[in-house]
Write a structure and sequence with these properties.
Layout (H helix, E strand, L loop, with lengths): L1 H27 L3 H7 L7 E5 L5 H8 L3 E6 L2 H10 L4 E4 L12 E7 L8 H11 E12 L6 H13 L18 H10 L3 E8 L2 E4 L4 H8 L3 H7 L3 H15 L9 E4 L2 E7 L1
Parallel strand pairs: 1-2, 1-4, 2-3, 4-5
Antiparallel strand pairs: 5-9, 6-9, 7-8
Helix pairs in contact: 1-4, 1-8, 6-10
């Protein structure tokens, strides 16, 4: 089961790498200041960015003067990160089997990567292993879909106009760590101390009524797979429903501002 889910996610990110940075980059990059502050990323610190994707967090850490390594299991994502940030070291690697010695880094960060792992608890333990004593770990996930509206409106539209029960490889619940208690207990179980969880009030700024649907259908994995399984008629109905729901978030200048809060957890070794 875990291997099939990992293979599914890997194939999905190989496909989505061409779209993810432009679709979600502006939104996910908003997390960088809070995420790096929580991990005490500063000049002279050695930092590992796990599930680095296009490298936006790694670049923000490097801008603070840290020595950064970014790791991602998708070669397509690594290629994109290297293209965007040629001065930063990026390498292929698995979050659940990090290719680094024990006690190597002063800080480990992961921005929304935990959602896509077959064994998130193992990845958290791996982060603990590669941290030095006193090192900091900080990571983010999305808030539940009733708060992270971009996800919620697409999932609601699928339920109303399509078929949500699409056979996919079984993996951990996407919103498992949206609950602070789940984050706290898992981090404590891995050995972390000084665990703190907070919600970051992010908003997604969009210029098109189709931007949410396009982002999730091309720049994601699980929801994208569900959408690909729909009939052409259902796809059009889902897209139209999302477009209608997005209108309530339209501003006077024509832009859309959609609530997309994130959950940030931080801890120390």
């Amino acid at each position: 089961m875990a291997d099939s889910f990992r293979d599914f996610e890997h194939a999905g990110w190989q496909r989505a790498a061409a779209f993810y940075g432009d679709a979600f980059g502006g939104l996910t990059s908003e997390v960088a200041p809070a995420l790096l502050d929580a991990a005490v990323v500063q000049s002279g610190r050695r930092v590992l960015d796990v599930a680095a994707g296009p490298g936006f967090i790694a670049a923000a850490a490097a801008a603070r003067g840290a020595t950064v390594v970014g790791v991602d299991f998708s070669s397509a994502m690594i290629a994109d990160a290297r293209r965007r940030h040629p001065a930063i070291e990026f390498r292929e690697g698995d979050a659940e089997r990090l290719p680094f010695d024990t006690a190597t880094f002063d800080a480990v960060v992961m921005n929304f990567g935990l959602l896509h792992l077959a064994h998130p608890d193992v990845a958290i333990s791996e982060a603990y292993r590669v941290l030095r004593k006193g090192g900091r770990y900080a990571l983010t996930v999305w808030a539940p879909p009733e708060q992270a509206v971009g996800f919620g409106m697409v999932l609601d539209a699928i339920r109303e106009h399509g078929t949500p029960d699409v056979p996919l490889p079984e993996g951990p619940p996407f919103f498992r760590f949206s609950a602070a208690g789940e984050f706290e207990s898992t981090l404590h179980a891995a050995g972390f101390i000084d665990v703190k969880v907070q919600t970051l009030p992010l908003v997604w700024r969009l210029v098109s009524a189709d931007a949410v649907f396009d982002a999730l259908s091309r720049g994601g994995v699980r929801t994208a797979a569900v959408l690909r399984a729909q009939t052409p008629e259902a796809i059009e109905a889902i897209r139209a429903a999302v477009r209608r729901n997005l209108e309530q978030y339209r501003r006077s200048d024509g832009a859309y501002v959609v609530p997309m809060p994130a959950v940030l957890a931080a801890a120390a070794k």
